[in-house]
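TICKET: design request
STATUS: open
ATTACHED STRUCTURE:
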């Protein structure tokens, strides 16, 4: 849903542009109403403006409108409509819509479940730098579902996502370093990525760090006990 935003001097100037049919002003108005930025928060008003821009084939507005249908914001939750609007935007190259459409195909929501279609749209979004899509694509390559299992390819996508602070990708990248899957085994790198994911609240990474430090403490204790046992009696 990223797009270069046009700017207006005042909210009223933007409203006039929206009422005159400017699609960029219309979807920006929708964001303002959805978030309560400069106006009272109103999801139904947000949908009104998103729809006006979406009907002009504005990809960002179509993606936002799909999100409203997906989550029941200002309209009844309707996954079929969500899929329709995500597809409209995805086919215009909107990475957020491509990711969201991939999720619907993966979950079978609003469309017939189709993992190959999910991967197709994740790949399209991942190529444009969408971090969640990069993570999901990495999982498919790691597990070998739909695509041939390829740990190196999984690591590639995990890394791209992890560098954008996607915590699950950071955790999975850490696991790859810990086990040597798709990358040379490196415990130091594993711990680095576990730490980044753990700070972001990833429970698996926090658990992995706990196991690592517990094993480290046990090893240090065993080493100390062995050294003490080898010391000659006074």
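STATUS: resolved
RESOLUTION: sequence designed for all positions
ATTACHED SEQUENCE:
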């Amino acid at each position: 849903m990223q797009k270069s935003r046009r700017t207006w001097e005042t909210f009223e100037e933007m409203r006039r542009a929206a009422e005159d049919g400017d699609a960029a002003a219309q979807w920006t108005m929708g964001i303002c109403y959805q978030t309560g930025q400069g106006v009272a928060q109103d999801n139904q008003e947000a949908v009104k403006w998103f729809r006006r821009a979406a009907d002009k084939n504005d990809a960002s507005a179509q993606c936002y409108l799909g999100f409203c249908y997906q989550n029941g914001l200002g309209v009844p939750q309707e996954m079929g409509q969500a899929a329709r609007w995500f597809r409209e935007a995805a086919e215009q190259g909107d990475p957020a819509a491509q990711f969201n459409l991939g999720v619907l195909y993966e979950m079978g929501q609003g469309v017939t479940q189709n993992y190959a279609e999910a991967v197709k749209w994740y790949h399209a979004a991942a190529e444009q730098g969408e971090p969640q899509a990069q993570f999901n694509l990495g999982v498919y390559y790691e597990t070998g579902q739909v695509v041939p299992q390829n740990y190196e390819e999984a690591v590639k996508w995990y890394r791209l996502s992890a560098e954008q602070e996607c915590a699950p990708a950071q955790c999975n990248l850490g696991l790859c370093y810990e086990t040597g899957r798709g990358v040379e085994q490196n415990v130091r790198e594993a711990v680095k990525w576990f730490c980044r994911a753990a700070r972001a609240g990833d429970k698996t990474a926090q658990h992995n760090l706990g196991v690592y430090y517990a094993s480290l403490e046990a090893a240090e204790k065993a080493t100390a006990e062995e050294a003490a046992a080898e010391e000659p009696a006074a």
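CLOSING REMARK: The chain has a mean pLDDT of 93. Residues 105 and 117 are 6 Å apart (CA to CA).
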